[in-house]
Specification:
Elements (H helix, E strand, L loop, with lengths): L1 E5 L8 H14 L4 E5 L5 H5 L17 H7 L1 E2 L5 E4 L8 H6 L7 H6 L8 E5 L6 H9 L2 E6 L3 H16 L7 E8 L4 H13 L3 E7 L2 H4 L1 H4 L3 H4 L4 H17 L2
Bound molecules: adenosine-5'-diphosphate and magnesium ion (MG).
Magnesium ion binds next to helix 1.
Length: 248
């Protein structure tokens, strides 16, 4: 079982779009897959047409791991389950802070699920707080979407420094470029620079494409409503490359 966090300390970079499409592709390949929506905004929950668990206070990630199984929903797709966003996730870092071993809570919560799934994907909110530290501890690999801007690359440097300073291995980090406009010289230059600076930047990149935006209209992964589109092909390439990179 591999736990894959789709994480960035920046918002709006394509984390949720990647998490939804990668989880779908993993499941399509026959792997039993669970996508955990750790962002209280519930975007991946929305894309999979699952109702967020707002009313059910007794559930969610703050509760005992035994109860977690009750919160998991099946999706419309074979082999793909979802742990919906729970409104209580907005306070997850506060809840964790009150516990023993506060950075190991998520690892512990996910522990009983390790035997049940081939892949667990975590769609993360854009914060570096206690929840993020729980994610870094629980994930086997951290996959970071980078948009080709100077600020996004600066944020990535900060993330790598944070991980190193806190004893997390940078070797578990993979980055890919997201929202790329190949016509822009600056995009091409920044991507070339990052590939020179970092070994962990994957070859696959996700272009800026309206089919990705339309996920919000169709409420589905791009492979479902635009199977032969460049967007579907880009996520397929990303999944293939990532899958090969994380294979034991
Ligand atoms: N490759 C892309 N091309 C065009 N729009 C994109 C792309 N990736 C994401 N978007 C759009 O940008 C917005 C933010 O993407 P999202 O995946 O929710 O980012 P995050 O989870 O990092 O906040 C969404 O409206 C999404 O539809
Ligand atoms: Mg998101």
């Amino acid at each position: 079982m591999t736990t894959i966090a789709i994480y960035s300390n920046k918002g709006g970079v394509g984390k949720t779009a990647a998490a939804v499409n990668l989880a779908y592709l993993a499941a399509q390949s026959g792997a039993l897959t669970l996508l955990c929506d750790l962002d209280a905004q519930g975007s991946s929950t929305f894309y999979f047409r699952v109702r967020p668990g707002i009313k059910r206070k007794a559930r969610g990630l703050t509760k005992k791991s035994k109860q977690l199984g009750d919160s998991i929903k099946s999706t419309d797709f074979d082999s793909l389950d979802l742990l919906p966003a729970d409104f209580s996730h907005r306070n997850l870092d506060v809840a964790y802070a009150e516990k023993k071993n506060p950075t190991a809570r998520l690892t512990k919560t996910l522990e009983p699920l390790r035997g049940e799934y081939d892949h667990i994907l975590l769609d993360c909110p854009p914060t570096i707080n206690l929840l993020a530290e729980n994610v870094f501890a629980a994930a086997d690999v951290i996959v970071v979407p980078l948009i080709p801007t100077t600020l996004s690359l600066m944020a990535h440097r900060q993330l790598l420094d944070f991980l190193a300073a806190n004893g997390y291995k940078n070797s578990r980090v993979y980055a890919f470029f997201s929202m790329v406009d190949g016509r822009k010289k600056m995009h091409r230059e920044l991507i070339a620079q990052a590939r020179g600076d970092y070994e962990h930047v994957l070859d696959a990149a996700i272009p800026y494409l309206s089919h990705v935006e339309q996920m919000g209209v169709y409420r589905a992964p791009v492979g479902v409503f635009a199977a032969s589109s460049p967007a579907a092909a880009a996520y397929e390439q990303l999944w293939q490359e990532l899958h090969a990179a994380i294979a034991p």
